[in-house]
Amino acid sequence: MVEKEKIKKIAKLARLGTTQEEEESFAKDFSLILDYFKSLEELKTSEVKPTFHPTEGLLGKNVEEEREDELEIDKAKAFLAAEKIRSAFPEREKKFLKVKSVFD
After folding, report:
1. From 1.10.20, 3.40.50, 3.10.129, 1.10.620, which CATH number describes the 4-41 domain?
2. b/e string for 39-61 if b means 16 or more Cβ within 10 A?
3. For residue range 83-104, what is the model confidence (pLDDT) as tens digits?
């Protein structure tokens, strides 16, 4: 079973207030989920062909036909509007823009 301390940490990160009963319930639920994933790890999938690939169909071909060198390569480009954006920001420190704190 998942330790209560881990449940408390997850709840804190998610900014959830939990009761002791909820923590016990979550611990059981998380344990069941993790056990299920462990059972999936035991499956032999080395010979199973993928049913989806993010670039499939991008060039009108399936994964086996696509070649990496046919895809467009990302290239860094100068961003000319950076100074215009910086000048519109109320607070700056050198090249950094100051924003309100997100975390306490």
Report:
1. 1.10.20
2. eeeeeeeeeeeeeeeeeeeeeee
3. 788 788 888 888 788 888 888 6
Contact 91, 98 (CB under 8 A): yes
Task: Enter the tokens of residue 45.
Answer: 């999938």
Please check the confidence at residue 13 and state whether its pLDDT lies above 90: yes
Residues 8/18, Cβ–Cβ less than 8 Å? yes
Amino acid present at 65: E
The yes-or-no verdict on residue 75 having pLDDT over 90 is no
Q: What pLDDT is stored for residue 34 in this prediction?
A: 92
Rounded to 5 degrees, what are φ and ψ at 65? Answer: -85, -25
Q: What is the pTM (predicted TM-score) of this model? A: 0.43
